[in-house]
Design brief:
single chain, mainly alpha, Arc Repressor Mutant, subunit A, three-stranded antiparallel beta sheet, 6 helices, 8% strand
C-alpha cells in the first residue's frame, strides 16, 4: 500500500475518533472547549489554560469563555503558578469533580473497552506510533508554513 493511501486511511480513522467524541459531546449539550476542560482536569489535574490550548489546539479565546462559564457555575477555579507572572493553573472544585464524573464515567468505560481491544491486538506501540505521527505532522506543518 502506498503512502498516500496510508495517509488517507489514517486521516479517516482520526476524523472518526474526533467525530465519536464530538457526537457524544453534542449529546451532552456541551461545546468542545467545555468538554476539553473537564477532560483535561478530571479527576484532579491542575493545568494552565495555555497548556490546554497547546495540547488540544483550541484557541485561547474559546477556552477563556468556557473557563469563565465554568467558574460562574462553580465547577473550576484558578491559582497562580509559582514563578509565572500571567499563567494560572485551572482545577476542578468539588462541585466540578462531581459534575465531570457524572459526564465522563461513560466515556471512560467506552475508552477502556476500546483501548483494551486495541492493545490486545497491537500492544502499546500503536499509542507510541500515534504520538510520534502527531508530533511529526505538527513539526512538518510548522516547517512548511
Amino acid at each position: 500500500m502506498d503512502e498516500n493511501e496510508l495517509i488517507r486511511r489514517y486521516s479517516i480513522a482520526s476524523l472518526k475518533v474526533e467525530g465519536v467524541y464530538a457526537h457524544f459531546t453534542k449529546k451532552l449539550g456541551m461545546d468542545e472547549s467545555e468538554w476539553t476542560i473537564l477532560y483535561a482536569l478530571y479527576p484532579d489535574y491542575r493545568i494552565s489554560q495555555k497548556e490546554i490550548c497547546d495540547r488540544w489546539m483550541i484557541p485561547t479565546s474559546t477556552i477563556n469563555t468556557a473557563v469563565k462559564h465554568f467558574r460562574e457555575l462553580g465547577y473550576c477555579e484558578v491559582e497562580k503558578i509559582q514563578g509565572k507572572r500571567r499563567e494560572l493553573h485551572l482545577y476542578l472544585t468539588e462541585k466540578g469533580k462531581i459534575f465531570a464524573k457524572n459526564l465522563l464515567e461513560k466515556v471512560f468505560i467506552a475508552e477502556k473497552k476500546a483501548i483494551q481491544k486495541t492493545l490486545a491486538h497491537y500492544g502499546t506501540s500503536f499509542v507510541e506510533a500515534t504520538e510520534q505521527f502527531a508530533d511529526a505532522l505538527q513539526e512538518a506543518f510548522k516547517e512548511n508554513n
